[in-house]
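hey team, just a heads up i'm posting the complex here instead of the shared drive bc the drive is being weird again. everything in one block, sequence lines first with there labels, then the predicted structure for the whole assembly after. its three chains so it's a bit long, scroll down
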Amino acid sequence: MDRLEILKTYKLYINGKFPRSESGRYYTPEGRGGKALGNICQSSRKDLRESVLAARGALGNWAPRAAFNRSQILYRMGEMLEGRRAQFEDELKQQGSTAAAARKEVETAIDLAVYYAGWCDKYQQVFSAVNPVSTAHFNFSVYEPVGVVAAIAPENSALAGLLGTLLPIIAGGNTCIVLASTGKPLSAITLAEVLATSDLPGGVVNILTGDRKELLPIFATHMDINSLVASDLTKTQIADIKQASVNNLKRIVIHKEDVSKLEDPYAILKTQEIKTTWHPIETSIAGGGKY
Amino acid sequence: MAKSPTSFRYDYAQSPPVDQVGIAERAARFTTRSIKTSTKREGLDMVLNMIDLTTLEGADTPRKVQQLCYKAGHLHDSIPGLPTTAAVCVYPPFVKVARKALGSNSPIKIASVATGFPSGHLTLEGKLEETQRAVADGADEVDMVISRGRFLSGDYEYVFDEIAAVKEACGKARLKVILETGELATLDNVRRASDIAMHAGADFIKTSTGKISSAATIPVTLVMLLAIRDYHFKSGNMVGMKPAGGISKSKLALHYLVMVKETLGSEWLSNEWFRFGASSLANDVLMQIAKIESGGDYQSPCYFSQD
Amino acid sequence: MKKNTQWEYAPAPEAAKIAKIAKRYDHFINGKWTPPQSGNYFRTINPGNGRKLSEVADGNDADVDAAVKAARAAYEGPWGKMSGRERGKYIYRIARLMQERAREFSIIETLDGGKPIRESRDIDVPLAANHFFYTAGWADKLEYAFPNRKVASLGVAGQIIPWNFPLLMAAWKIAPALATGNTVVLKPAETTPLTALKLAEIIADSGLPEGVVNIVTGAGSTGAAIVNHPDIDKIAFTGSTGVGKLIQQTIANTDKRATLELGGKAANIILEDAAIDQAVEGIVNGIYFNQGHVCCAGSRLFIQESVYDEVIWKLKRRMRTLVVGDPLDKNTDIGAINSKEQLKTIQKYIQLGQEQGGEMYQPKCKLPAAGNWCPPTLFTNVTQSSVIAQEEIFGPVLAAQSFRTVPEVISKANNTPYGLSAGVWCDKGARLFQLTTQLEAGVVWGNTFNQFDPASPFGGFKESGFGREGGLHGLAAYLEM
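-- predicted structure starts here --
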């Protein structure tokens, strides 16, 4: 007799834990050949609120960390992705990818992690500045994380697109709430399992699944989200979130590029603020004894 | 205004930090004040009346000092009503000459440098003796120098005690303490030296000997004025200020007065509390006054007696 | 002789004669002075005496459209085709012409805006010219500014600037736009249009191709016409957070880029080991500079409790030496409030501050009879939740609070929707940098305040806007990457 397969339960990832949606709602996206992918949590506005609290709470731990340490943690993510290649490929295939495409996407995703791991402690060196002001001051401009970032991952690239969205955000010291692909959510939840065991502090990345249309306006109007990064939005959706996010002047980043292949330090800068600091430079009294 | 002797020792760690760039910015603001018409004329008279007309040269002779004393009381007789200078300032051996030239009831004070001026490298006994002799010879005021070497090596106790001892040796004469700020390197040191001097009994604090390249500047004077203000607030005692060296133009002198007025208040705007140590400033002020009196004609130094 | 006078400063007015102000100004469109299509003009007033200085064209949609067409034609024509090197030479030329006419510019800036001549002469005008000079050199070096990027200009920039630094803001807007190869339609504020129009004279003299810079005057509706114009690629706005949000909303369904430099409520923090007298100077410079009409003004003062009394005593003493009055007098420290409306707003906040339990201090000062005046004002005993500690007043009004520890003051300082600037006064380097790194603000002044330089990027966090102006980073706002 054949052994009965154990089905995986897919949950949300908030503050380093795996809760179900508080709403009890779920949806059942279809995978290859119309086969149901499982009962996926349909996040509510309250789940979103909880994620923002988690992200805000984690910011004080993540942002001030040594950039070198963030780099090591992102690299560790790459190592763990490599270790779970088979599972990610399998899920991508379930979600409709060919075997070759699945293998390619997982490889791209791992390489993205290694790529951004390297930038964590280098973008500051490349893009900050010491400004030669005319007065007796030392003046420098550095990048700082914008804070809590909401990220809408692309719809079609379930793993590489997700990583291409969130890696530049966390590489720069932000914390985030990522809304996974609605139609292909499995990779996101499995990624959460990787994150949970990868030295990344809980709350730095929070992953929600559910309905974009429902959650977009809630992301846009939330007063404690500093920036909103999105891919694959329609013109109307872009206009709507821009309008709705005016209440706290969120920094809106619309990716026009394919983020699943986005190896670009400028992507990190999009969720950074520039801080310029001034300090006087003393001059001693000239003179000395010449009696 | 008599000053009670200081009965408490100064805690050398108490002097606050000074930010040199901030001081320079504030100093620059004084120089943007525009002093015009009646304010200018009044200011120029004040400047003349605050000058310690000075000769401090190895080549000084009794005749040179006599000339200086006459000039102090007759700055430019063709303009009636001009004030005299506040004082003449000479080396100790010339105090007697100056006293003789000025007479015993002159409003012009006699200031004598002392304590091994300008380097200050003299034994304490020598310093005290020199001070006592200058006062006995008729000096109203003594301009001493602090021991900068001791100060820079951190021996603040020594500097304090030495000033206190000289103060005692002064008797009734008022003591001006020269910090020689050009050797103190930082404004923090200027502040600390000012505090030490005032707590040890200085009646005036003075920037410089005039013998090294960096003498009085507006920033250095500002730091000292702020120290005077804080000391006045804490103790109730007024202390005078004397920038010396490097002030030879009227416009600059007026900016010093602006600084005194805005930092300490107009109570300090008299020669009881503020002096300029200068030799050539007087003639520049006189030329300015003559220009105003003549209705605006620019003047030539040929018409103003040098000594 | 024993003098003991107050030695008050006699009047020392700057001679205003060399400033040439026409009776009437038209728009500057396509290199020509162009009358408004409506035929309407509005008055610009000297806030120091309430008298009319001149009248300027009231721009409507048609005027803005003509300006945008001219800017587009210039962009697609000579300017777009010109090499960076040649563009840079024009900008250098503008800088030099400004330096040559600096005195005239500072007088007009003071007449039209009410700021003390000392500030327009020593700060606004030289900084504006320096901004052109600094930025000019970037025009042919953009490939070095953004490594591994090929950058391109955006097109036509619509720029709307405020009344607090009329010429300086025009320079901050126009110089980087030109250096990066864009063309410009700029609207100065309705209460202070004159120096931008004088700048147009210089631009004409410089031989800059027609239409590269167009200046359209008017009030809010003229600004709205710029924001709404479909052929503008980029909006650069400096002004209130309210209007900034409105602009962002208006352009949401377009591809227009925006940089917004908005309001602020900066914390100025005095720690117990600070050089107190220099800190007091920084407090004064932070809030009373330009009558407090400064978006980055240090309007919230935080003093550590152990030095609270000393700081307040010294601050009040210093406030008594400030000269308030005729902006043209070279000794004036605090000039006229820019407009009657703004004066009313400030007075409303002063009233509220008293009603909400703040203790008010204003030094005695003789104020002129005509014109708009407000003495320097300090509120002590202010609570964090009171209106004057929360809202931007844009006037010479300072709200002082005390604090006990560094974590407490960081949290209080960041407890605001704004994030433009902050100041910290502290003698210990390690502690200073703890604060500067944790304060949420785009510009942080350590042991100084209100310093500006063309090489130094300026702009805010949070609701103080986005984008930077000045320095290398200011170029990005006008480039496609």
